[in-house]
Amino acid sequence: MDVFSFKGVKHPLVNRESALLQVIEAFQASHLCDEQGFSGVQRPHVSIAPQMYGSGKSTFGQSFQTFVSMNKEFLLHYLGKMGLPGIAKGDNIGERSLDALLNETLYVVLNLLDVPDGNRFQTTLFEWISKEALAQFPNGADLLSQVLSCIGSPKEWFQKLLQVTKKRYLYLFIDEIEALEDDKFTMFKELMVTQGANRVHNVYCSFFGVLSTILTQPFVICVLAGRSDAVVTSQRDALTSPVMLSFLRLDPFSEATVKYFIQNTTYDNEPILKVLFPSHPEGHDWFFKQVYDYTGGVPYYVVHVLNELRKTCESWNSFCDLSEDEMKEKIENVAPNLLVTLSRMTPESMIVFSSMLLASIFEFRIPKREILFGGLGTGSYPEYVLDIANHFGFYYVSCSRNELEEASRIPVRGRNETYFKLVFPKIVLKHIQSRYWNIPPFRFICSLFSSISRLDSPSSRGFKFEIIFTLILYVRWCFCSKLGELSIFRHSFIEHISIESAKTIGSLKVDPIPNYVPAFS
């Protein structure tokens, strides 16, 4: 079992088969190859993981080669049908393609927070990639001088890099791309070219322009990660970009995966469950569920909660072998150490945040075409829910269009449609309630749901339906008045309420909830 360490605690490396396949599909889409595997000119596809901190995007990017090894059988079957760019079609194409990923690929990991000093970004990037790639070889210094002698020509430089290393592909993972917005990158003058009114937008356009000089070479597998409000991947907004940005989905862990994760977590080579439950080292199903419910399955928060519980048990032996209720209380006292600050949010922004929170609670299913990235940093179209949700601290998981469908992709007007649900971890919600209690929409939601939890008698059911009905109206109003007309509402619980009328939307200039439920105003 592959593991990784964090703060002295060892955790299993959870398989990311779906994300692995997404990257390979994007790589295949970057090249049109003939029968011999020779590539034609094609706009390169870049896999980008814009998820919030703690979703596992860095671990995935850094461990891509390990994930390839973990999924040999799956990849062998998949690649046996299409193969990879640069691999001639014919017998054993699956085996030859898999071998290329395992043994004929240079794996390079960069973090833009550590960018070297320089004057020209293209030269600095080429040198940086060369040094990282050749550091893996015993004669790396000699090879580096050969490669850098060709740095003036992107094509010759890349060919020399693959030639001296005897490799077929370059896997390039660039983490923390939001660092491009820092002042440090002003030292690269070609990134500061004025193309529009927004400096942040300009630097990303210039960055992708430089990156494309590498990606257009045969053959590069590229994955980017980071959180930025300025990255736009809707193709109508990125037609000038030389690359295609492919959304890389990394779902939070499922409840079953959280259980597996905890069962295989150790501290000082001792299972964490034995530390927490000395009398029941196998753990309890209720404990796994409590951790999942509180963290939303977000990997970083799962690790954080386990680490905090472990430290508490080490300090106070009386906190071991707690009952279900006692453990729930301890878990819910764990504060998040990664908290998206909402300090700059206006009351209008809090309305949007509250509507997204309700959408997550009611598990609204949102089409992917409405959660492409972009909007906040560039002042672009506000319909892109995902980027705004990222800004507010939401995560997302793939889902079917409704509970009766098994697949998350269904044909819509001749194409496959992907759906997602927003997730907001309780660990974060619990610790921001006091900060934003004075904002009516947020206070309304928190008060309402604490009330609903106490209204379990048969006589309360009608009241609960009325509240839920009102909340759905509220979500629909917030999204329509603040984010534009989205088809999310065509898949909601209330189908017959018209929200398309401009007159109706225009009449709701203020928060409508007090008019419906005065007690919560």
What does this entry look like structurally?
The chain is 43% helix and 12% strand. The protein has 521 residues and is an alpha/beta fold. The longest helix has 23 residues, at 461-483. It comes from Galdieria partita.
CATH topology name of the largest domain, in short, is Rossmann fold
Number of domains: 3
Please state the average pLDDT score: 76
For the biggest β-sheet, the strand order reads 4-5-6-3-7
Using only CA atoms, what is the Rg?
Answer: 25 Å
The count of strands amounts to 13
Which blocks of ≥5 consecutive residues have pLDDT under 50? 233-239, 370-383, 406-415, 452-462, 481-521
Q: Give the termini separation.
A: 54 Å
By CATH, the architecture of the largest domain is named: 3-Layer(aba) Sandwich
Shape summary: globular
What structural category do the secondary elements indicate?
alpha/beta
CATH top level label of the largest domain: Alpha Beta
The portion of residues forming beta strands comes to 5-15%
What is the helix content? 40-55%
SS element count, helices? 21
